[in-house]
Amino acid sequence: MDDLTGWCAERGWRTSLQGRKAYCLPASLTKSAAAAEVARRTGAGTVLAAGDSLLDTELLEAADAAIRPAHGELHDTAWTSPTTAVTARRGIAAGEEIAAWLLRRAVAPAQR
User: Fold this and answer.
1) pTM to 2 decimals?
2) 65 φ, ψ to 5°?
3) Hey, is 44 helix, strand or coil?
4) Long-range pairs of 59-66 with CB within 8 A, sequence gap ≥ 24
């Protein structure tokens, strides 16, 4: 993995090892950059995000508010951030909790 990381870095790419999977991605291709571009194009004033994998960390950190489930890679590494909530439930119940959390935050500003 170290050799692959060095080879990729020389070419402007980054690597991410997640379990048995190795990802090689262009350094400029990130979920946070994509979300920022969507927000710019739509004029969104607030970015909400949800994620559970190590590749989601910068998206969650870049969002105005975020949530992650109490399972998955981020949970296994005890990853947290000041703007990221963690569900109380796991599995499909966490998915329902995430959907409700996002809906509350997306609808609340429109009700003001």
Assistant:
1) 0.81
2) -150, 145
3) coil
4) 59/30, 59/31, 59/32, 59/35, 60/84, 61/32, 62/32, 62/35, 62/36, 63/35, 65/105
Give the three-class secondary structure for 47. coil
- DSSP for 3-42 reads HHHHHHHHTTEEEEEETTEEEEEETT--HHHHHHHHHHHH
Using a 10 angstrom Cβ sphere, with 0-12 exposed, 13-18 middle and 19 or more buried, the burial of residue 27 is: exposed
- Which two structure tokens, joined as six digits, stand for 44? 């969104």
Quickly list DSSP for 70-110: SSSHHHHTT---TTEEE-SS-HHHHHHHHHHHHHHHHHGGG
CA dist 61 and 64 (Å) reads 8
Beta-carbon contacts of residue 83 (< 8 Å; ≥ 6 apart): 60, 61, 63, 64, 65, 66
Residues 31-71 have pLDDT tens digits of 999 999 999 999 999 999 999 998 899 999 999 999 999 99
